[in-house]
UniProtKB/TrEMBL annotation:
Gene3D superfamilies: NAC domain (2.170.150.80). It comes from the Eukaryota. Residues 91-227 form the NAC domain. Pfam families: NAM (PF02365). GO terms for biological process: regulation of DNA-templated transcription; system development. Keywords: DNA-binding, Nucleus, Transcription, Transcription regulation. This is NAC domain-containing protein. It comes from Gossypium stocksii. The keyword Magnesium does not apply. One of its GO terms (molecular function) is DNA binding.
Amino acid sequence: MVLIQNYEDLHWSFLHQISKTLVKEDEVENAVKEDLHNRDYSIPVSENRVEEDDSIPVSKNRVEEDYSIPVSKNRVEEDREEDHYELDNPIPVGFQFLPTNEELVTEYLINKILHNPLPFWDFSEVEEAALYSTHPKSLVDFVNGEKKWYFYIHKDKNFSNNSIRKVENDLGFWNLKWCEEIHDTKGNKVAFNNHFVFFSKRDKKTHWKMDELQLRPEWYKDFNLEN
């Protein structure tokens, strides 16, 4: 199993969202100021000035106009309409899939190998040769703005033992940076996490990263399975 990540636009996206929110609030504030500025609260100089002042006090009329259509209330109602979703939707709005490495191994990878029922979420299957046949951006889908993608990988011995894994057509290579052990809830060592970074064909480090979660060889022996 591998987790491919792209951090290229992460900070930009975060700042963009903050900027977009501030602009939206500024637009509302400016609209209110402009509206108040454009309203005619002057009192015509005429013989009826006193009568007009007594019949329709300017200060009272201004307050009534200001609070007749509260901007903040309208914004809340509009936001609620936009954020509305059906209650029977199995995935709530704002839900994010953020499993730990332990959960990926014990709940997904092991159950996948043993043909056991899998949790609600499932991943695509990719041959390891296909994984290293193209640039990582060609393997993933950016439709919903994802930054992480998960795949089940069919291992190929031509790649598995190499710390540097070249991508076809000289597009670049994956370089193993470090490896760490993964433990289950009982503290048993069950897998390894091999952390790779993608370099372009000019040996330039990119924002693409990959975590390869691989079960320990001893685990396969316990279940009489071939590694």
